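Journal club side-thread
Mid-discussion, someone asked how the predicted structure for our own chain would compare to the paper's figures. Pasting it here so we can look after the session.
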Amino acid sequence: MTDFSPAWIEKLVEAHWLTLHSVVVLAGLAVYAIGSHTFAQRRHPSAAIAWMISLALLPYVALPLYLVLGNRKQGEGRPTAVLPRPPGPGAAASMADQLAAALDLPAEAGFSDFQLHEDGAQARTSLLALIEGACHTLDLCSFIFAGDVLGSDVAQALAARARAGVKVRLLIDGAGYYLGKRPDTAGLARAGVQVAFFMPPFRAALKGHLNLRNHRKLAVADGIHLWCGGRNIAAEYFCGNAVDASPWTDLSFDLRGELAAQGQIRFAQDWAFTMQQAPDANAPPVPAPDSAPGMTGRIVASGPDQAQDTIHTLLLSGCYTARTRILAVTPYFVPDQPLLMALVLAARRGVKVDLLLPRHSNHRLADLARPSALRELSAAGAQIWLAQGMVHAKCVVIDGGLALAGSANLDGRSLFLNYELMVAFYDRQIVDSFAEWIERRLQGAARYHARKPGLARELTEALVRWVAFQL
């Protein structure tokens, strides 16, 4: 009779440890290969190499992490509501329309009453006005919804509209909910607000989706009034908090019209996914476009629910076609090599490239990971500006003909992992207003001057960039 005592097992492991270890390594690599093929996980080459090396050298750590964090795209094919599509490529179609058609983006939609918020106070006033003006439906999505003074004001306004008979839905990211003081969601529910949490951490971990967070930020009233940008619902993004009385520099805007309906449809899709419902049951009717819509834009969503890396592709296209100016602001600058090279080549061919960053962001890893890209971009002739205080705004302006503004940072997490939402604007007046907003912040910023790093610093930067922002 075979002896399966602990001593026998220990002796077996000692005799065949290399074979057993090899089996674990091969199993980990097989899981990676099968998962990448089955769920269409198209990764950047450096991210793929990072996973494979980790699975080979540290399989007992890397394999559990891969099972929890490894999925980048949803394999089950998320249902979507019908959005108006741009015309097919043809002689009459603009380059923007051709690219939008290739990426399956919605058509340009009209809007009016555009307002770019100068500061957090104006953003707060506009958000509360949108909420208080809702008559039929009110949808709000945020990565963070804090239970601080700002969050309490917004929560009270949401509850008041729900009590007045408005259909109010609040979608908070399941991980972002735990960042900072939590809001009184039970009180909101009692008032009639429908509250949902996007992929709660435990459930997401079981599906390998823990790394995929909903970073989209928008509020839509009655399908006609949109508030959007980079601000979470927390005091630091608007008016300052108990730790720091100075508010962060952030960017948001609001508008009215058909473009707002695209935002509401996008919210309805995220809500249906969270509630495991068919999106058609929640998608509102799209209001008829104005007879004279004036300005146009389009909602640009990116993330695991999109077949393409939409925002990344639009940025690459914009950088390669830019002729005179690229102006960008982002809190975290850790681009992948293709995007960095697109910016570098633009600067080398004479395009004026200006990049505004915080001197020190709220994420130390992001600050450790960015110097290599900054040195390369600076050497190509780009001007990099470092602002005092935290800058959380996200916007890219290209040639006065395109402005992309919303929730996406210029780093791998935003461009390849998170659910993000940007709005593309094409009207010269609107695009110029974004450029002027950024330029006013450049005036108080200091020029970045590259310094050659030591070997230890360079290795640290590479490790942080490779691991923290690629996986």
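Post-session note: The first helix runs from residue 6 to 38.
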